[in-house]
Structures are given as C-alpha cells and as structure tokens.
Amino acid sequence: MDASFTIVPYSEAYKDAFRDLNEEWIVKYFQIEEMDRLALHNPKSYILDKGGYIAVALLNEQPVGVCSLIPCIYDGYDFELSKMGVSPTAQGKGIGKLLGQHIIEKAKQLGAKKLFLESNRKLVPALALYKKLGFVEMAKVASPYARSDIQMELILE
Q: For the domain that residue 91 is a member of, what is the CATH number?
C-alpha cells in the first residue's frame, strides 16, 4: 500500500460513501434489506450513538472502504463487525485486511472480548479474509438478514 492510504474515523463527510460502498456489494449479490437501510441511512443514530465505530479507508483522500463495529444484540458478544465494503476499483490491494485489522484493534481498545459477524457463503473472498483475521464459524443464531447463511466469531485476547 502506498503512502496515500490511511484509515480515519467516520464523520458526516463520509455518510454517502458509507452507504454507497455497502449498497454496491449488497445490490451486486443480494438485495437491500430493512436492517441495511437502518444502518446505511442512519449511521450516526444506528451505530455511533449506540457506542459503535465506523472506519473509513482513504486512498488518495478518496473513500474506498468502510467497516463498522455495531454493539451486538447477541449475548456474549460485544460488537458485530458489519457493513464492510471496499470499492471494486480498490479491491486486491489489501484494503479489506487493513480495515479488518484496524476494526479489531479498535474493538480491543473499546474493551471488547468477543466479536460476531454474519455473511454469506457465496462471498468467498470476504470469508477468506475473515478467516485470515482469526474469525471461526460458529453455530447459527437467529438472524434479521435473509442473506445470512454463515456466522463467525472472534475471541479477542
């Protein structure tokens, strides 16, 4: 990655990028669901105001990736790693891995002990990334997402 790459905390300036980068991959493979609308159209109230965090990856000062920590509704989990998207024009550069590492470090700073995520088995590159980051498949819990067919967890040290 070159020197013009950085990861910054979310601000309102990145509201459209947060929505667009996620909608891009969701629409490509699935369809937008109600839970997507809640998070993507109201990141401040749905994620940040509840104690969550959103990271924005910038390449040459342009947002090319996003990822969030959403306080988790499931017992035993502190946060859900969610709404991770990298622009197709920036994929293959390791941005997803750097975003994932950044989010995990942030979760540790926030005192998290265990992270949760939901995905779909057809998102092979995403699942490979999650495994590289240390996530392991877990027994499925009820999901608000129709597209979710795999859930993973990461126990933080």
A: 3.40.630.30
Alpha carbons 147 and 107: distance in angstroms, whole number: 25
Q: Which domain holds residue 28?
A: 5-155
Residue pair 150/121 in contact (Cβ under 8 Å)? The answer is yes
CA gap 41, 18 in Å, rounded? 9
Q: Let me know: does 9 contact 54? Beta carbons within 8 Å.
A: yes
CB 83 within 8 A of CB 39: yes
Token readout for 146 is 């129709």
* Cβ neighbours of residue 11 closer than 8 Å, sequence gap 6 or more: none
**Pairing of the two strands 62-71 and 114-119:** unpaired
Total of domains in the chain: 1
**Side chain identity, residue 142:** A
Per residue in 95-150, pLDDT (tens digit) is 999 999 999 999 999 999 999 999 999 999 999 999 999 999 998 888 888 889 99
Ramachandran region of residue 29, left (φ > 0), alpha (ψ -120 to 50) or beta? alpha
> Which tokens sit at 58?
């910038």
CA distance 45 to 22: 17
